Amino acid sequence: MEKKTLAYLAAFFNAVFIGLTFLFTKQSLAFAAPFTTLAFRFVLSFMVMSLLLKLKFINVKLDLNGSQLKDLFVLSTFQPILFFSFQALGLLYISSSEAGLINALIPVSVGIFGMFFLGEKLTPKQLGSFFISIAGIVFLFLMNGGTGDFNASGVVFTLLSVVSTSLYIITGRKLSKSFDPMTLTFGMMANGALVFLLLALGLEHLTLQATLSLLQNSEFMFGILYLSLFTSVGTSFLTIYSLVELEASRSAVFMNLCPVIAVVAGVFVLHEEFGYYHLIGSVLIISGVLMASFSEQNNWHAEKNSRENKIREISKN
């Protein structure tokens, strides 16, 4: 099988694993409090990556200087700490399919923050696509409010998770050049494990007895194993692999599958309600995101062609 084909498969399964995150997080929260769930997830993820490091399957730079440690702290504050905290808290109040749809706004949020903080320019087409996606979210939750299912806390927490990961991406564009991807992933898993364990012990009073009880709960541990091995560790490898062979814009298009997978999993596995207004809202949100993605991809190719033409002209002269 060609490397390009394998890269496309990696990007596809990366989107599938992320899309199913909402389902398994929602199921895990039925057995444990949010920070306890996150503590189990990130401690296990850190243990797996530590084992891979010990066996020399991965290379991680451990001798970081003060500036790099500061950058790592900033990045890991936005994600995983704030992002996953708000995501778990949001899933206490709204369905996994609704959370997945709100997370489809991440490319829109990144575009808006990029405009303000990085001075990136947005085309009228991109601005229009952002408006369509936001209109989809507003429509979805206005209709939910009409049926009595609207939960402001869940929506706010999930929107804050979108803001957190957007700030992580924006900050990462400036700071992540200080690290190789594997070192960054290892550091984020380590920080997540430490912070979430402290929060579980301090705020949720996690005890040894409760820990042992959860370890014996097969449903809970199945979800934690999925979230740790496939979502936290697995997606890191798949993202890196796909980006080796594919342009970032092509790889990012596959991420538009995440909300679709989240909705399908929520409806068919958790039997969450999916009315006509969910369908309309979904179409608006995903259409806006697709328009933004393809617009960005076209702009990238246009700039690339322009640079190549200039090089040819200079060569001729």
Overview of the structural elements:
It is a single chain. The termini are far apart. The model has no long low-confidence stretch (mean pLDDT 81). The chain is globular and about 50 Å long. It has 14 helices and no strands. The chain has helices spanning 3-19, 21-28, 34-54, 66-91, 96-103, 106-117, 124-146, 152-175, 181-203, 208-215, 218-245, 248-253, 257-268, 276-316. The longest helix has 41 residues, at 276-316. The chain is mostly helical.
Describe the secondary-structure layout.
Blueprint: H1 3-19, H2 21-28, H3 34-54, H4 66-91, H5 96-103, H6 106-117, H7 124-146, H8 152-175, H9 181-203, H10 208-215, H11 218-245, H12 248-253, H13 257-268, H14 276-316
Helix pairs in contact: 1-11, 1-13, 2-5, 2-11, 3-9, 3-11, 4-8, 4-9, 5-13, 6-8, 7-14, 9-11
